[in-house]
Amino acid sequence: MSGFRAVQPETRADRAAKQDKTTLEKGRLAQRREKFTRYVDLGNPTEMSNGAVGFLADADRFHSDTAGEEKLHRDKNIQRREDMYELKRNQFLDREENRWSSMEGERSMEQQKLEIMQNTSKGTRNHSSVAYDCVTLEYHATPAGMQQRFEDDMSRYRAGVRTEKLHRFSSGDGYNPITGEELRALRLPAKPEAE
Fold it and tell me: Where is the composition biased (Basic and acidic residues) (predicted)?
């Protein structure tokens, strides 16, 4: 224990570092006190420690199979495109199926309407609506023909009754006002009976 104080001499690099502005600022930040954040030397800022969020192992960083990655990326894009085409194809097929089923439904409805029209009098356009043959001038031998004959006879009977009434009440004295002849009594047709 001597009375001399041994001080490690500073190297040229240490003396140059003291004069360097960046090193001087780092030193001042490290000596801060109170409420200021202290400077901590992190070492190399481009290197991440094992537990850091940005850490990546060298095996992963220097991955050399980029062509394989590109192929996987291309295959994924192709698969996505094929899936899209398949979806569109399925949608088109569903739309076509719905269209054909609706067309078949319309056709069956049209067929039903046609059958109904054929089975009713509406669909018999070439048939007369009365039970009377225009060529032979005879009534059909059906219940509808008999009904038609009765209705025609009744209308003739009513016309005869009207004519007789007009004839009787038109001239009160019994003479024709134009010719002066005596009016003859009209013969009233017999009232038809329903069969």
Answer: 11-30
